[in-house]
Amino acid sequence: MEMISIERELKDNSYPGRGIIVGRSADGTKAVIGYFIMGRSVNSRNRVFVEDGDGIRTQAFDPSKMEDPSLIIYAPVRVLGNKTIVTNGDQTDTIYEGLDKQLTFEQSLRSREFEPDGPNYTPRISAVLHIEKGNYNYAMSILKSNDGDPSSCNRFTFAYNNCPAGQGHFISTYLHDGNPLPSFEGEPKLMAIPDDMNEFADTLWTSLNEDNKVSLFVRYIDIETGCWESKIINKNQ
């Protein structure tokens, strides 16, 4: 698979929607997560990321402007032991509860489908990172309508074992802007992952469309110790 430039990928796309990046730092020592949200409506743009225990959650920037919270207020990142979950919706909790009951990542998502926001039927994208005794693997998932048909849900899971240093994968909810918004297609895209968390976060943030970007979260997890450092960038301050 050809490796994309994530900077060019984002700069050339005014609205990928929400995106997940998972991979391994160039020096091989860190597991890496990136998650961003974008918005076209006032309701979607009225959000910030805030820390919530070991993870994060979305929160209304101005509560007086909040309309329907059902699809925009959730915990994108949660940690269960040596597993870190990142998603674009409340399926974070579904995966967390499933893994806690010894279900697999894929089994945990069997009860969920794409979002009920026709005509877009926004895909649910998810990832789980598993770090144990210096070993690291991850999986990514997308649940999407069958080419806009809400009566049929297509489910795809991609598992990555022993990810090479400096590589990662990117998946987003949409291919690009549109009405209705076209769902992401194909495998997660192969991309480079640098060592410097702040540099990586800045590259992602500056590459996202200025009008539509809302919030960004990046975390680097030490594969040997499990310790992490994170960065949150919110457009609303």
What are its keywords?
237 residues; five-stranded antiparallel beta sheet
Secondary structure elements and their pairing?
Blueprint: H1 6-11, E1 19-24, E2 30-38, H2 42-45, E3 47-52, E4 55-60, E5 77-80, E6 83-87, H3 91-100, H4 105-108, E7 124-132, E8 135-146, E9 149-161, E10 167-172, E11 189-192, H5 197-207, E12 213-222, E13 228-234
Antiparallel strand pairs: 1-2, 1-10, 2-12, 3-4, 5-6, 6-7, 7-8, 8-9, 10-11, 12-13
Number of domains: 1
Structural class: mainly beta
So, the CATH homologous superfamily?
Inosine monophosphate cyclohydrolase-like
Low-confidence stretches: none
Fraction of helical residues: 10-25%
Strand-residue fraction? Answer: 35-45%
What is the architecture at the second tier of CATH?
Answer: 4-Layer Sandwich
Spatial separation of the terminal alpha carbons: 39 Å
Count the DSSP helices.
Answer: 5
What do we call the CATH topology? Glutamine Phosphoribosylpyrophosphate, subunit 1, domain 1
Short description:
With 237 residues, the chain is mainly beta. It has helices at 6-11, 42-45, 91-100, 105-108, 197-207; strands at 19-24, 30-38, 47-52, 55-60, 77-80, 83-87, 124-132, 135-146, 149-161, 167-172, 189-192, 213-222, 228-234. A hairpin with a 5-residue loop joins strand 1 (19-24) and strand 2 (30-38).
Give structural notes.
By secondary structure, this protein is mainly beta. It has one domain (6-234): Glutamine Phosphoribosylpyrophosphate, subunit 1, domain 1 (4-Layer Sandwich). It has 5 helices and 13 strands. The chain has helices spanning 6-11, 42-45, 91-100, 105-108, 197-207, and strands at residues 19-24, 30-38, 47-52, 55-60, 77-80, 83-87, 124-132, 135-146, 149-161, 167-172, 189-192, 213-222, 228-234. It has a 6-stranded antiparallel beta sheet, with helices on one face. A 5-stranded antiparallel beta sheet has the order 5-6-7-8-9, covered by helices on one side. The longest helix is centred in the last third of the chain and has 11 residues, at 197-207. The radius of gyration is 16 Å and the shape is globular. The mean pLDDT is 97.
